[in-house]
Write a structure and sequence with these properties.
- By secondary structure, the protein is an alpha/beta fold.
- The termini are far apart.
- The model has no long low-confidence stretch (mean pLDDT 91).
- Strand 4, helix 4 (100-116) and strand 5 form a beta-alpha-beta unit.
- The chain has helices at residues 18-27, 50-68, 81-87, 100-116, 136-144, 155-165; strands at 6-11, 33-39, 71-77, 92-97, 121-126.
- It has one domain: 3-Layer(aba) Sandwich (Rossmann fold), CATH 3.40.50.620.
- It contains six helices and five strands, in the order βαβαβαβαβαα.
- It has a five-stranded parallel beta sheet with strand order 3-2-1-4-5, sandwiched between helices.
Length: 168
């Protein structure tokens, strides 16, 4: 590697799951600096505010950065991904894929993004077998219904979910 390759991993991270952490960890093998863009996607109706999601992602990525001797910046993201990536100095966008249904959406997005900025490549990482089924929306639903989410998110994230979904 060139010693200065920056990648961007964008997402809503509402909340950050073990699947996200897996992709982030594996992305650190491809770049020298990783910028995790936490989208302010009000259209998805997030359970946590962008500030809360930034805090959770920073807490989860701190240990990854240290163990891989790599810089991981966690930044708020709004607007076009390609503008965010260019401002971060990124040459790579990292995207995680869980299933064929993800591919259809991502395939279209790659084409649009390439037209917006052909100098930034998109790299897909398949979710690890043990994480392919994890989706933030399912984790939230399980938490709301009082189910066990301990195998889908870290304990600090699980605690925040339990607190947020607590019924008085």
């Amino acid at each position: 590697m060139s010693g200065n390759r920056t990648g961007v991993y964008p997402g809503t991270f509402d909340p950050i799951t073990n699947g996200h952490v897996d992709i982030i960890t594996r992305a650190t093998r491809l770049v020298d600096r990783l910028v995790v863009g936490v989208a302010d996607n009000k259209g998805k109706g997030p359970m946590f505010s962008q500030i809360e999601r930034l805090e959770m992602v920073r807490a989860e990525t701190e240990k990854i950065a240290k163990s891989n001797n790599l810089v991981i910046d966690v930044e708020p993201m709004a607007g076009l991904l390609m503008h965010f990536a260019a401002a971060a100095g990124a040459s790579i966008i990292i995207r995680g894929l869980r299933a064929v249904s993800d591919f259809d959406f991502e395939f279209q997005m790659v084409g649009m993004n390439a037209r917006l900025n052909p100098t930034i490549e998109t790299v897909f990482l398949m979710a690890s077998e043990s994480h392919q089924f994890i989706a933030s929306r399912f984790v939230k639903e399980i938490a709301i219904l009082g189910g066990d989410i301990s195998s889908f998110v870290s304990e600090p994230v699980a605690e925040r979910l339990r607190e947020r979904t607590k019924v008085d």
